[in-house]
Structure formats: structure tokens, C-alpha cells
């Protein structure tokens, strides 16, 4: 089915990414710390879910619709912070969010008249929630001292493992 096709499409991409990261990471510093492993696994889980849903969703919707809906994460992050902190982030943030969506809509030649919420659109909207989670996980203060190369390698490894196992 389409989930198999999505996983089979993604597995080689992340296997190659891991190999390249390991090749180019030589000499960047030793074994990943526990914090880097936790961050890499968290980011990898969010990224794997988001990437999987986005790839599967592309089989059921147009690429321009997918790119537009994926950018909904730009709106979700300020909404999340507004709800969590119980305060409005301000007009400039909301105007910025609207400009992001308008820009993506224009660049992707998005047509509001053809928008329907079928499987591809719902999967893409859900993928943007996971991408928001990925961004929020990266930004957690407890991970501030982590090395990006180690975290990225772990993230790619988790995705390669998940898609290959699937």
C-alpha cells in the first residue's frame, strides 16, 4: 500500500544521510552524550512521523497544496506559545504568520478553489503538527549545549531505522 511506498522511498534517503554524517563527522568529537541522544531521538521521532505523513500525503494531493499546508506549522508555533503562556504574542507575529502563508501560497501557485480536505490534506496538516513538535523539541533549554552534528546523526539514524523496519 501507500504506507509501504512512503517508507520504501524514505529509507534509502536517511540511510545515505547517516552514512554521510558518519563519514564527515569523523574528528568532530567523541561519543554522543546522553542529552544529545535524548534530543536526537526526540527530534528523529517527530521528524520521522512528519516526513512519513507528508510523503504519504503527497500521493493523494498536489505538491502545491502539500507545501502550503506543511507551512501551517508556522502558525501552530505561535498558537502553541499563546495557549501555553496565556498571552497574545502580538500583531507583528500574527502578521508574520499570515505573510508566510501568503508567500507560500503565491510561490506554490496554491488555488483556494481546489482545496478539499481529503486523506492527503489531512495527513499533511498532521505532518505540520509533528514538524512543530520537532522545532519545539530542538529549542528545549536543556539541550542548549548539545552538538548539532551528533544530534543530527542520531536523528537521521532513527529515521533510517524506522523506515527500514517499516
Structure, explained:
With 166 residues, the chain is an all-alpha fold. It contains 7 helices and no strands. The protein starts with a helix and ends with a helix.
Primary descriptors:
0% strand, globular, mainly alpha, 166 residues, single chain
Calculate Rg over CA atoms.
Answer: 18 Å
**What's the helix-strand series?**
HHHHHHH
Overall 3D shape: globular
Q: Which runs of at least 5 residues are low in confidence (pLDDT < 50)? A: none
Number of strands: 0
What's the rounded overall pLDDT mean?
Answer: 89
Characterize the largest beta sheet: strand count, sense, and whether it forms a barrel.
none
Helix content: over 70%
Question: What is the terminal-to-terminal distance?
Answer: 12 Å
What percent of residues are in strands?
Answer: under 5%
* Tally of DSSP helical segments: 7
Structural class: mainly alpha
Short note summarizing the structure:
The protein has helices spanning 2-25, 34-57, 63-70, 73-85, 91-107, 119-138, 148-165. The protein has 166 residues and is mainly alpha-helical.
Explain the layout of strands and helices.
Blueprint (H helix, E strand, L loop, with lengths): L1 H24 L8 H24 L5 H8 L2 H13 L5 H17 L11 H20 L9 H18 L1
